[in-house]
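Consortium newsletter contribution from the modelling node. Members have asked for a concrete example of what our holo predictions look like. Here is one, prepared for the S-adenosyl-L-homocysteine complex that several groups have been discussing at recent meetings.
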Amino acid sequence: MQEARNLPTEGTVLTDLRSFTHGQLVETLKELGQPTFRVKQIEEWIWEKGATSFDDMTNLPKALRAQLAERFTLGGVKQVARQISEDGSRKYLLRYPDGTTVECVGMPTGSKLAVCVSSQAGCAMGCAFCATGAAGLTRSLTSSEIYDQVMHVRNDFDMRVTSVVLMGQGEPFMNYDASLAAMRRLNSPDGLGIGARHITVSTCGVIPAIKRFANEPEQFTLAVSLHSAVQKTRNALMPGVRKYSLLHLYEVMGEYVDKTGRRPTYEYALIRGVNDTEDELGALCDFCRDNLAHVNIIKLNEVKGSRFQPSSDARAGEFVRRLASVGVEATIRQSRGQDIDAACGQLKQRLSR
Ligand code: SAH
Ligand code: SF4
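And here is the predicted structure:
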């Protein structure tokens, strides 16, 4: 019965081969009586070439391709919708086999291609200005589901991906293992081979995960969504991280910089009358001065039905000048895909520096 063991019966959901670790793949091929070099061949098809069918794997014997297809799927995302902006950026709505959908974006600049991916379908953190937060969490994504978004965008543009940001839907540090595994695979020469510094993870400030991240050996880039350096304002804007005080965040970020020597980015979406006042600007300068920090001033995306309005461009300019006057480099993040509808309320303006 050895042969029939893995055969699907009617209604069986086949296992996604992409969810296998290297060790599991080695074991599986051994069980099928295959030489070990097949593992490398299959991994190349999955992670470098982005094969979506076993039939694509032309250097495998036909019989093996059939055996694999009987037992496994290759996950595979389906494109539900794609919007193309006048500036060339493309936004996608993708669906996984279980029906869950997420968004991702590709942003080309010359020969460079930046991709923004989601780490969860929805988000449980409930930030007041964020459309994803308003909808709650559906589920976390697996590492291959995160990786597949990048592959999808790469295949659609037919370009090499030069940077990736985990700044789509979801909180990557509430899905730490899968997010890190996806980042590692993106970085790996056996995957897309994207430089670690060009892979950025953005967190709303989950402190235990920031501490853990500081100990990872790769030179990944960290972005922290700050949005206010005044405790009361931040509590109201970001209720999901209320339990972590700004003082604690400040200390942990100091440790992060000491340990890694890398400069974190702080994201700050300017909201008229809420976090763009003189007091708020003063608190932001105090939070960042004398620290290794880069501040990204983001123009708030207006979310339907929200009471929050973006600040003026002049106010954003003033923030940059004042931060510079205390020695903190700040940039106003270039906006992309203005004309494509950003339903999740946040995918328009993500461009890694
Ligand atoms: N959960 C992570 C990463 C995804 S959100 C985080 O919060 O950092 C990516 C970025 O979009 C965050 O900086 C978030 O604060 C920001 N964002 C959310 N809603 C926005 C809006 N309406 N306008 C501008 N930026 C927004
Ligand atoms: Fe979640 Fe980030 Fe949106 Fe906050 S801003 S609700 S953490 S996705």
